[in-house]
Amino acid sequence: MKKIEAIIRPGKLEDIKEALNKYNVQGLTISQVMGCGHQKGRKEYYRGTEVTMNLLPKIKLEIVIKDESLEDVLAIITKEAKTGEVGDGKIFIYSVENAIRIRTGEQGETAI
Amino acid sequence: MKKKLLAVLVVALSVLFLPAFAFAASESKIDTGDTAFMFVSTVLVFIMTPGLALFYGGMVRKKNVLNTMMNSFIIMALISLQWVIIGYTIAFGPDKFNLFGGLDWIGLKGIGEAANADYAGTIPQSLFVLFQMMFAIITPALITGSFAERMRFPAFIIFILLWATLVYDPLAHWVWGVGGWLRNLGALDFAGGTVVHISSGVAGLVAALVLGKRKGYKTQTMVPHNIPFVVLGAALLWFGWFGFNGGSAVAANGLAMNAFLVTNTSAAAATLSWVLIEWLLHGKPTVLGAATGAVIGLVAITPGAGFVSVIPAIIIGLAVSPICYFAISVVKAKLGYDDSLDAFGCHGIGGIWGALATGLFASKAVNPAGNNGLFFGNPAQLGIQALSVVVTIALSAGMTFLILKGISLFTPLRASESEEEEGLDIAQHGEDAYPDFASQENLSL
């Protein structure tokens, strides 16, 4: 099992969710996060005073999938999240030791 | 016959229960139209202070929103009492030395339904007391924007009570009270440009300097946490200002409607000019800017609302935005003081422009009881206006400094560093404006 953690543009969430749903990935967790990277910040003006916002709002998307789905899921996320501009985000992949469905006690891939 | 009976009954009752003004009551000519109009104007001015709580509350960081709103809200209660006990008599009581009203009306002794011909000859004096009370409430509330996010609540309460008693009430007497020395000089201030806006704005600047900058000022980002609150607050202020300026005619007449008309005109012009400046300089018109422009347009027209006509109102409104924009974005940054929510930049600077503009554009054609300004052949008026500005600045700055220094001998003015980091909502009030969902779910833990 693999866990995919993708930091994406907030505006891309719906597209990714829809594409993953079509591929039959039904479980996902998202959180609102702030972060910085190559995108730097953006300038905002409050009553004419410039304020640089270093941390920009992003969405963190977490999915746990079977090993064999990894390439497909990565391709879907990359395709949907990409604009080509700086600030599209990053994807991190981790190996998952086990998974447990709390309701039934099922373990491993059947639990995800 | 019935009316006569009623009148006799009223007089009889007032003789029984309120002997002090029974005489006046039987002689006064209350106008029901004026009274109804002034009642509405009074409640309109009342809503401005809760509006200000939203305006300021939206501009602070979310850890300080409750404290900021409380500062305005508690003033509604504090000054309501201060005004009926001592404030009104200092401001409008029988003149002493051209400086303040005597204490004859302490606790509103003898004041009731009878009119007072000196101030408002056609409405019950009790209504005039209430109308003026709303001004006395919002003025110290305006100051709170400058020391937002760092003042300790106990020191704040003492400061407000002393400031209202030692600055607002005497100044109201100087400018509006019969016998007040600025009024005798012929200074024109229709609805409170000097008394309300310059005095509060300058007090704000001094308070910001005495208290010092917020922790992390210029190194941390401090941006408004809820601009929709700011817009709602600005809308309530704009709405209430029709009563503030219109009601300052103290009668339902053409002058009141002139004030209404020029007030709305100036607010509109200033909103557009602020938005235009931002659009040109930074490429985007901000909503905070539009709300700010509206409020300073209202500030600027306040002293002249009963003396100027529509075209000058457009000029006053169009000009106030660049003036305040410059003060806030350039001068404040250069001088480095931390006027958190620009109480000085908006009310002090906007008020000064308004007071001087009244000396430029005032016209007897609008109000025969006023005077002509520079552009209508009376340059002396501009000098008188300038003098009233200087005097207001001197009184407010000096007294604010003394009051704050005095309080600091007994109790700290500022929240501690750790309280500031934690936020004044928790530190001063033990409340959290926006408890997150997790802590709501786990209340029993």
Give a topology summary.
The complex is a heterodimer of chains A (112) and B (445).
Chain A: E1 2-8, H1 13-22, E2 29-35, E3 42-46, E4 49-53, E5 56-65, H2 70-81, E6 89-95
Helix pairs in contact in A: 1-2
Chain B: H1 2-17, H2 22-27, H3 32-59, H4 65-92, E1 95-96, E2 100-101, H5 125-143, H6 153-176, H7 181-185, H8 193-211, H9 227-246, H10 254-282, H11 287-301, H12 310-335, H13 343-361, H14 380-408, H15 417-422, H16 424-429, H17 437-441
Antiparallel strand pairs in B: 1-2
Helix pairs in contact in B: 3-4, 3-5, 3-9, 4-5, 4-6, 5-8, 6-8, 6-14, 8-13, 8-14, 9-10, 9-11, 10-11, 10-12, 11-12, 11-13, 12-13, 13-14
CATH architecture call of chain B:
Orthogonal Bundle
Task: Examine the coordinates and then state which fold CATH places here, giving the name of the CATH topology of chain B.
Answer: Ammonium transporter fold
Biggest β-sheet: strands ordered side by side in the sheet of chain A: 2-5-1-6
N- to C-terminal distance of chain A: 9 Å
What percent of the residues of chain A sit in helical stretches (DSSP H or I)?
10-25%
| Domain module tally of chain A | 1
Gross morphology of chain A is elongated
> So, the CATH homologous superfamily of chain B?
Ammonium transporter AmtB like domains
Q: What Rg of chain A do the Cα atoms give?
A: 17 Å
Question: Roughly what is the average pLDDT of chain A, rounded to an integer?
Answer: 93
Please compute the radius of gyration of chain B using only Cα atoms: 22 Å
Discrete helix count of chain B: 17
pLDDT under 50 segments of chain A (min length 5)?
none
Strand content of chain A: 35-45%
Largest interface, C-beta closer than 8 angstroms, per-chain residues: A-B, 10 and 19 residues
Strand segment count of chain B: 2
